[in-house]
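Case study B.
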Amino acid sequence: MNHDHHNNQHENGSEETSRPLSPWLVGAFMLALCWGGFYLAFNSGGFRQDVYESNAVNWAGGGVAAAAPVDPKVVGKRLYNQNCVVCHQASGMGVAGQFPPLVGSEYVLAEGNMGDNHLVMLVLNGLQGHFMVKGQAYNNAMVPWKQLSDEQIADILTYIRSDWGNNAPPITPDFVAQIRKETASATDSYTQEQLMAMPAMKPAASQGSAPAKK
Ligand code: HEC
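Model:
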């Protein structure tokens, strides 16, 4: 927007002093300003934080953007959208034959033979080869996610256990830290057989009502 109105190039010319701006130019400029103003007014969503930040759905009554959310599920959803959504999809349904669903998954919900430890282990250390989810076979691979912090993994898992109709207790950062320590020697992604060989843990620690430590 820093257009030069003073024609400085011609400073040394004798006859050229500061010319008045062309009225046409001024008019065009004002028009552009007005258009810009209206455009913003109609398309900015009133500059509400939640218009831009899809996770910040704290409407706080009067439409005033609320302070940054600290709910693990909200943070977890954002992290899910950054790290997991390309394969498991926003719907949590995955892609048939390629990426298994998280909705109703026995791993996510720690149902049957599955424990909370299996869920944390497979996300921390990755998966490879033949893998059955909800009676469907997959034969693909998932990279390890151990570069994420204990808290980030806990938030993601707490989120995927609570959206899309899933309803399982939160996973705490402490529990992720514990499993990370116990499986630190794992150098390769798990196969289903290796994962299932570990006994299921459904510790009180990961199911308690204690809020995640910040
Ligand atoms: C590049 C694709 C990809 C990404 C990204 C990805 N996954 Fe996976 N995920 C897979 C595949 C493929 C499997 C099945 C592994 C196999 O076939 O051996 C899987 C399996 C799983 C399972 C166990 C099976 C099930 O459906 O319940 C969970 C839980 C899971 N992923 C969670 C996550 C989480 C959490 C993230 C993000 C931190 C993530 N995944 C990111 C591809 C991906």
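Residues 205-214 have pLDDT under 50 and may be disordered. The remaining cases will be described in the next quarterly update.
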